[in-house]
Amino acid sequence: MSVTTATPSPQLFRPDHRSADALRQVRITPHYVAMAEGSVLMESGNTRVLCNATVEQGVPSWLRNSGRGWVTAEYGMLPRATLTRTARESERGKVGGRTHEIQRLIGRSLRSVVDMKALGERTVILDCDVLQADGGTRTAAITGACVALALALGKLVKAGTLKNSPLKQMVAATSVGIVDGNVLLDLAYEEDSRAAVDMNVVMLANGGLVETQATAEHDSYTRTQLGQMLDFAEKGIQELLAAQRTILDQAG
Protein backbone atom coordinates (compact mmCIF):
# COMPACT_ATOMS: atom_id res chain seq x y z
CA MET A 1 0.00 0.00 0.00
CA SER A 2 1.35 3.39 -0.95
CA VAL A 3 0.84 6.54 1.07
CA THR A 4 0.74 9.92 -0.63
CA THR A 5 1.79 12.92 1.44
CA ALA A 6 1.39 16.58 0.59
CA THR A 7 4.50 18.38 -0.52
CA PRO A 8 5.50 20.71 2.30
CA SER A 9 5.54 24.38 1.46
CA PRO A 10 8.93 26.10 1.55
CA GLN A 11 9.81 27.17 5.08
CA LEU A 12 9.54 30.88 5.62
CA PHE A 13 12.82 32.34 6.82
CA ARG A 14 12.89 35.54 8.84
CA PRO A 15 16.13 36.95 10.23
CA ASP A 16 15.04 36.35 13.84
CA HIS A 17 13.26 33.03 13.11
CA ARG A 18 9.77 34.41 13.77
CA SER A 19 6.64 33.07 12.18
CA ALA A 20 4.95 35.32 9.62
CA ASP A 21 2.34 36.57 12.12
CA ALA A 22 4.68 37.04 15.11
CA LEU A 23 5.79 40.29 16.69
CA ARG A 24 9.37 40.96 17.59
CA GLN A 25 10.17 40.75 21.29
CA VAL A 26 8.48 43.69 23.05
CA ARG A 27 9.88 45.36 26.15
CA ILE A 28 8.24 48.38 27.79
CA THR A 29 10.19 50.03 30.62
CA PRO A 30 8.15 52.63 32.56
CA HIS A 31 9.58 55.62 34.46
CA TYR A 32 12.71 55.53 32.31
CA VAL A 33 13.34 59.27 32.78
CA ALA A 34 12.67 60.44 36.33
CA MET A 35 11.92 64.08 35.51
CA ALA A 36 9.11 63.51 33.00
CA GLU A 37 5.48 63.24 34.10
CA GLY A 38 5.30 60.04 32.08
CA SER A 39 8.24 58.16 30.60
CA VAL A 40 8.65 54.87 28.75
CA LEU A 41 11.45 53.13 26.88
CA MET A 42 9.68 51.21 24.13
CA GLU A 43 11.65 48.37 22.55
CA SER A 44 10.46 46.29 19.62
CA GLY A 45 13.25 43.94 18.64
CA ASN A 46 16.25 46.17 18.04
CA THR A 47 14.15 49.32 17.65
CA ARG A 48 14.27 51.50 20.75
CA VAL A 49 12.21 54.65 21.22
CA LEU A 50 12.24 56.86 24.31
CA CYS A 51 8.78 58.37 24.90
CA ASN A 52 8.40 61.20 27.43
CA ALA A 53 5.16 62.97 28.32
CA THR A 54 5.14 66.57 29.55
CA VAL A 55 2.04 68.27 30.95
CA GLU A 56 1.92 72.06 30.61
CA GLN A 57 -0.70 74.57 31.65
CA GLY A 58 -2.33 76.36 28.75
CA VAL A 59 -3.21 75.47 25.19
CA PRO A 60 -2.49 76.87 21.71
CA SER A 61 -4.01 80.27 21.08
CA TRP A 62 -6.81 78.90 18.92
CA LEU A 63 -8.02 76.77 21.88
CA ARG A 64 -7.86 79.42 24.62
CA ASN A 65 -11.03 79.86 26.68
CA SER A 66 -12.55 76.79 25.05
CA GLY A 67 -12.18 74.62 28.14
CA ARG A 68 -10.52 71.97 25.99
CA GLY A 69 -7.03 70.54 26.18
CA TRP A 70 -4.55 69.51 23.51
CA VAL A 71 -2.23 66.56 22.89
CA THR A 72 0.67 66.85 20.47
CA ALA A 73 3.86 64.97 19.63
CA GLU A 74 7.41 65.58 18.52
CA TYR A 75 9.57 62.92 16.92
CA GLY A 76 13.28 62.78 16.31
CA MET A 77 16.05 60.33 15.52
CA LEU A 78 19.46 60.42 17.17
CA PRO A 79 22.36 60.78 14.71
CA ARG A 80 23.61 57.22 15.29
CA ALA A 81 20.23 55.52 15.57
CA THR A 82 20.98 54.13 12.10
CA LEU A 83 23.93 52.34 10.50
CA THR A 84 25.41 55.60 9.27
CA ARG A 85 25.24 58.95 11.02
CA THR A 86 22.28 61.12 10.13
CA ALA A 87 22.75 64.84 10.73
CA ARG A 88 20.48 66.40 13.32
CA GLU A 89 17.64 68.33 11.73
CA SER A 90 18.67 71.34 13.81
CA GLU A 91 21.93 71.35 11.81
CA ARG A 92 19.93 71.59 8.59
CA GLY A 93 17.84 74.41 10.01
CA LYS A 94 14.44 72.80 9.40
CA VAL A 95 12.35 69.78 10.25
CA GLY A 96 12.11 67.32 7.36
CA GLY A 97 8.92 66.21 5.65
CA ARG A 98 9.18 62.65 7.00
CA THR A 99 9.49 63.97 10.56
CA HIS A 100 6.46 66.24 10.12
CA GLU A 101 4.43 63.31 8.78
CA ILE A 102 5.37 61.04 11.71
CA GLN A 103 4.73 63.75 14.31
CA ARG A 104 1.27 64.34 12.89
CA LEU A 105 0.55 60.59 12.87
CA ILE A 106 1.58 60.17 16.52
CA GLY A 107 -0.41 63.25 17.58
CA ARG A 108 -3.56 62.14 15.71
CA SER A 109 -3.31 58.66 17.20
CA LEU A 110 -3.04 59.90 20.78
CA ARG A 111 -5.71 62.57 20.45
CA SER A 112 -8.13 59.85 19.38
CA VAL A 113 -8.08 58.37 22.90
CA VAL A 114 -8.20 61.54 25.04
CA ASP A 115 -11.31 63.39 26.21
CA MET A 116 -10.07 66.94 25.60
CA LYS A 117 -12.90 68.50 27.61
CA ALA A 118 -11.99 66.38 30.63
CA LEU A 119 -8.32 67.29 30.19
CA GLY A 120 -9.13 70.98 30.54
CA GLU A 121 -6.90 73.73 29.22
CA ARG A 122 -3.69 71.77 29.46
CA THR A 123 -1.28 70.59 26.78
CA VAL A 124 0.37 67.18 26.85
CA ILE A 125 3.50 66.96 24.71
CA LEU A 126 4.84 63.54 23.77
CA ASP A 127 8.52 63.59 22.84
CA CYS A 128 9.44 60.44 20.93
CA ASP A 129 13.18 60.07 20.38
CA VAL A 130 14.52 57.12 18.42
CA LEU A 131 17.64 55.76 20.12
CA GLN A 132 18.06 52.85 17.72
CA ALA A 133 16.19 52.23 14.48
CA ASP A 134 15.53 48.78 13.04
CA GLY A 135 12.17 49.33 11.37
CA GLY A 136 8.81 50.30 12.82
CA THR A 137 9.95 53.42 14.66
CA ARG A 138 6.69 55.33 14.18
CA THR A 139 4.52 52.43 15.33
CA ALA A 140 6.76 51.80 18.35
CA ALA A 141 6.53 55.52 19.15
CA ILE A 142 2.72 55.42 19.15
CA THR A 143 2.58 52.30 21.32
CA GLY A 144 5.12 53.62 23.82
CA ALA A 145 3.79 57.18 23.85
CA CYS A 146 0.32 55.97 24.82
CA VAL A 147 1.78 54.31 27.91
CA ALA A 148 3.72 57.48 28.76
CA LEU A 149 0.52 59.48 28.28
CA ALA A 150 -1.41 57.14 30.58
CA LEU A 151 1.28 57.47 33.27
CA ALA A 152 1.26 61.28 33.03
CA LEU A 153 -2.52 61.54 33.25
CA GLY A 154 -2.53 59.05 36.10
CA LYS A 155 -0.20 61.36 38.04
CA LEU A 156 -2.66 64.23 37.60
CA VAL A 157 -5.41 62.07 39.06
CA LYS A 158 -3.25 60.96 42.00
CA ALA A 159 -2.33 64.57 42.72
CA GLY A 160 -6.02 65.53 42.78
CA THR A 161 -5.60 67.86 39.80
CA LEU A 162 -8.07 65.79 37.81
CA LYS A 163 -10.95 63.75 39.21
CA ASN A 164 -10.68 61.06 36.54
CA SER A 165 -8.20 60.29 33.79
CA PRO A 166 -9.21 61.80 30.42
CA LEU A 167 -7.75 58.70 28.73
CA LYS A 168 -10.73 56.89 27.21
CA GLN A 169 -8.87 53.78 26.09
CA MET A 170 -5.45 52.65 24.90
CA VAL A 171 -4.13 52.75 21.36
CA ALA A 172 -1.27 50.79 19.78
CA ALA A 173 0.27 50.37 16.35
CA THR A 174 2.32 47.96 14.31
CA SER A 175 3.67 47.50 10.81
CA VAL A 176 2.82 44.77 8.34
CA GLY A 177 3.90 44.18 4.76
CA ILE A 178 4.43 41.86 1.85
CA VAL A 179 7.98 40.55 1.41
CA ASP A 180 8.84 37.99 -1.28
CA GLY A 181 5.12 37.32 -1.69
CA ASN A 182 4.56 36.66 2.02
CA VAL A 183 2.46 38.78 4.36
CA LEU A 184 4.64 39.51 7.41
CA LEU A 185 3.90 41.21 10.72
CA ASP A 186 6.17 43.77 12.40
CA LEU A 187 8.86 44.26 9.77
CA ALA A 188 12.47 44.69 10.83
CA TYR A 189 14.58 47.01 8.67
CA GLU A 190 16.01 44.16 6.60
CA GLU A 191 12.48 43.15 5.62
CA ASP A 192 11.05 46.66 5.35
CA SER A 193 13.82 47.77 2.97
CA ARG A 194 12.78 45.19 0.36
CA ALA A 195 9.05 45.01 1.01
CA ALA A 196 6.79 45.16 -2.03
CA VAL A 197 4.04 46.59 0.18
CA ASP A 198 4.48 48.45 3.46
CA MET A 199 1.59 49.14 5.84
CA ASN A 200 1.19 50.81 9.23
CA VAL A 201 -1.94 50.18 11.30
CA VAL A 202 -3.10 52.13 14.36
CA MET A 203 -5.89 50.49 16.35
CA LEU A 204 -7.87 51.22 19.50
CA ALA A 205 -8.42 48.79 22.35
CA ASN A 206 -12.06 48.45 21.26
CA GLY A 207 -10.95 47.34 17.79
CA GLY A 208 -11.62 50.63 16.03
CA LEU A 209 -9.13 51.72 13.41
CA VAL A 210 -7.50 55.13 13.78
CA GLU A 211 -5.21 54.97 10.77
CA THR A 212 -4.18 52.56 8.02
CA GLN A 213 -1.32 53.49 5.72
CA ALA A 214 -0.73 50.91 3.00
CA THR A 215 1.69 51.74 0.19
CA ALA A 216 2.71 49.62 -2.78
CA GLU A 217 6.45 50.22 -2.88
CA HIS A 218 7.08 47.95 -5.88
CA ASP A 219 4.03 45.82 -6.72
CA SER A 220 0.32 46.35 -6.24
CA TYR A 221 -1.62 44.26 -3.73
CA THR A 222 -5.03 42.60 -3.80
CA ARG A 223 -8.00 43.13 -1.53
CA THR A 224 -7.42 39.61 -0.22
CA GLN A 225 -3.85 40.53 0.73
CA LEU A 226 -5.09 43.75 2.32
CA GLY A 227 -7.49 41.74 4.47
CA GLN A 228 -4.71 39.36 5.50
CA MET A 229 -2.44 42.29 6.42
CA LEU A 230 -5.20 43.79 8.58
CA ASP A 231 -5.78 40.41 10.26
CA PHE A 232 -2.07 40.09 11.06
CA ALA A 233 -1.96 43.68 12.32
CA GLU A 234 -4.98 43.18 14.56
CA LYS A 235 -3.43 40.06 16.10
CA GLY A 236 -0.18 41.91 16.80
CA ILE A 237 -1.89 45.01 18.18
CA GLN A 238 -3.99 42.95 20.58
CA GLU A 239 -0.71 41.55 21.95
CA LEU A 240 0.74 45.06 22.24
CA LEU A 241 -2.37 46.29 24.06
CA ALA A 242 -2.02 43.39 26.51
CA ALA A 243 1.62 44.35 27.11
CA GLN A 244 0.57 47.97 27.73
CA ARG A 245 -2.05 46.89 30.26
CA THR A 246 0.46 44.69 32.10
CA ILE A 247 2.96 47.55 32.43
CA LEU A 248 0.34 50.03 33.61
CA ASP A 249 -0.98 47.54 36.17
CA GLN A 250 2.55 46.96 37.46
CA ALA A 251 3.36 50.68 37.48
CA GLY A 252 0.30 51.37 39.60
UniProtKB/TrEMBL annotation:
Official protein name in the record: Ribonuclease PH
Q: Which CDD domains match?
A: RNase_PH_bact
Complex formation? Homohexameric ring arranged as a trimer of dimers.
Gene that codes for this? Answer: rph
Keyword list, A-Z: Nucleotidyltransferase, RNA-binding, rRNA processing, Transferase, tRNA processing, tRNA-binding
Catalytic activity reads:
tRNA(n+1) + phosphate = tRNA(n) + a ribonucleoside 5'-diphosphate
State the top-level EC class: transferase
- Every copy of the Exoribonuclease phosphorolytic domain together lies at 23-152, 170-236
The residues listed in the UniProt record as binding phosphate, with positions renumbered to this chain, are R98, G136, T137, R138
